[in-house]
Recover the amino acids of this structure.
């Protein structure tokens, strides 16, 4: 059965220019291997196809545990010149949590 | 003799941050240092524009408010204050702080750190990191400020300044500076610098590590968020730190809040570049060691880069916005019709025009298959223009929907702003010359 990431993990979004950074943390450490297997860079790129126009790079941090997604060309040129309602992309953490695994 | 232990607090994490938690932290936190981080990427550029209008301005507009509230407390409790509230005019900020201290009868030594303004060193052929295009493509520049490191604060610390005011300094470096000074860390002691940088990075957004920007009712509950306390770190001379907050304040410091903040805005956790060191997060360990106490250790460091990042502000034209609400039966269709009408009326003249329906797809361009139309939606229109007149037209056309658009539009709002864009470039360290000076604020200070 598929579940939304929102029930398995928490997430925070950050920005650097036009780059959106999404940090994903399992609520339970033992879910990390499953998340690492399912929430790949490609899967995130497909899920956020409406948002991310560039590459998605994933870093694995089993020491925390966490996955860090660095999404390029995702913020309509960045906070200072974007026309978006949320120019920082701060709400994007919850866009990732809509993903089903 | 070098100290073994320091307590450093974070009293602001952005320009407009709340004042009350900083007062509580300074009063009851038993701090050695209080750091106020108040400069976002664009803030210096905006401040530079203020300074062009008025040469005595260009520092943080809340400087006076924060100093009046905090200087008496830090004088009484012997806490040293470090802040980047100097923005585009650290000297002017230093003079203002000295004036406030004198008025309040406080005997405080105030230092300013200058040299981050590198606008005279910018060349039109310098490459921007974001687009790879040369600076000349961005037209007239407003400001250029290098991110200075913790090394640039050492002279002011050595001269026993009670208050140190800087312009652009990398956020974690504001916190690392007192660790280097008090523990006697060498500037090539990469592991210690990385560890201190991580602690600084955890503190730089203040309440964001102590339960702010974290609560999600039922999933991630935070007690007494209304009275969120700001954090401090207990750091020892080995670079091992414990993040905590003042007992009795709201919020929470736990492994989850610390992890979220650890990775916040980090584009490469294997090599986090600051002016002082390149830090690797892959060896970081986080552990809850008590109520609202989280230990952080294990970061490893690599030699700093030969260049400093420069944040360059440029004129980016104007943005016009307008909004209108629709509610009740068929609200989405009526808002959608309004969007079509506006596209027809404005689209030809304003190619950048963007129209969203707040409540449907404004934040994420999609609602991921959520099935139901909401009871109410808010139409939002925004466009980037070369001139103010064009930007104004956007709001006017939204306003005109009142009598020239679909039924039942209400709650109209419009706004126009001129934009300063930010791009980055790199500058060799040798080209950035910094200085620290003690502010001489009048006879009292000179006589001391």
């Amino acid at each position: 059965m598929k579940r939304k990431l929102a029930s398995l993990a928490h997430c925070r979004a950050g920005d650097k220019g036009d780059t959106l950074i999404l940090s994903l943390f399992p609520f339970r450490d033992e879910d990390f291997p499953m998340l690492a297997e399912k929430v790949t860079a490609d899967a995130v790129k497909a899920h956020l196809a409406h948002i991310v126009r560039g590459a998605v790079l994933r870093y694995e941090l089993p020491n925390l545990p966490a996955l860090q997604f660095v999404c390029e060309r995702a913020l309509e040129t960045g906070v200072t010149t974007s026309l978006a309602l949320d120019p920082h992309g701060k709400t994007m953490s919850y866009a990732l949590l809509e993903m089903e695994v | 003799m070098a100290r073994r232990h320091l307590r450093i607090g974070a009293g602001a994490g952005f320009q407009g941050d709340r004042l009350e938690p900083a007062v509580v932290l300074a009063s009851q936190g038993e701090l050695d240092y209080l750091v106020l981080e108040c400069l976002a990427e664009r803030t210096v550029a905006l401040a530079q524009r203020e300074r062009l209008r008025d040469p005595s301005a260009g520092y943080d507009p809340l400087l006076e408010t924060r100093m009046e509230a905090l200087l008496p407390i830090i004088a009484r409790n012997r806490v040293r204050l470090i802040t980047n509230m100097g923005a585009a005019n650290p000297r002017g900020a230093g003079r203002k702080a000295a004036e406030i201290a004198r008025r309040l009868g406080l005997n405080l030594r105030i230092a300013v750190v200058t040299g981050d303004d590198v606008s005279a060193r910018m060349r039109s052929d310098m490459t921007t990191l974001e687009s790879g295009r040369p600076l000349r493509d961005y037209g007239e520049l407003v400001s250029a400020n290098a991110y200075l490191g913790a090394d640039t604060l050492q002279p002011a610390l050595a001269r026993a300044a009670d208050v140190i005011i800087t312009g652009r300094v990398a956020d974690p470096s504001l916190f690392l500076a007192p660790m280097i000074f008090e523990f006697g860390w060498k500037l090539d002691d990469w592991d210690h610098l990385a560890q201190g940088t991580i602690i600084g990075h955890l503190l730089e957004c203040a309440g964001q590590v102590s339960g702010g920007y974290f609560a999600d009712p039922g999933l991630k509950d935070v007690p007494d968020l209304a009275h969120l306390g700001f954090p401090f770190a207990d750091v020892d001379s080995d670079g091992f730190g414990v993040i905590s907050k003042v007992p009795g304040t709201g919020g929470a410091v736990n492994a989850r809040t610390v992890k979220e903040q650890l990775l916040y805005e980090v584009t490469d956790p294997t090599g986090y570049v600051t002016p002082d060191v390149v830090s690797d997060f892959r060896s970081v360990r986080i552990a809850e060691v008590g109520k609202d106490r989280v230990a952080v250790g294990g970061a490893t460091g690599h030699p700093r880069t030969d260049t400093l990042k420069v944040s360059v502000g440029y004129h980016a034209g104007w943005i016009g916005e307008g909004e209108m609400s629709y509610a009740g039966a068929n609200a989405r269709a009526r808002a959608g019709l309004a969007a079509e009408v506006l596209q027809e009326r404005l689209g030809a003249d304003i190619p950048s025009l963007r129209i969203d329906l707040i409540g449907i797809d404004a934040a994420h361009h999609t609602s991921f298959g959520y099935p139901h139309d909401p009871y109410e939606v808010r139409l939002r229109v925004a466009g980037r223009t070369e001139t103010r007149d064009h930007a104004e037209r956007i709001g006017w056309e939204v306003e005109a929907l009142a009598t020239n658009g679909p039924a039942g539009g209400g709650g109209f709002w419009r706004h126009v702003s001129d934009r300063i864009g930010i791009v980055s470039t790199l500058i060799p360290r040798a080209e950035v010359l910094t200085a620290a000076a003690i502010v001489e604020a009048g006879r009292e200070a000179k006589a001391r």
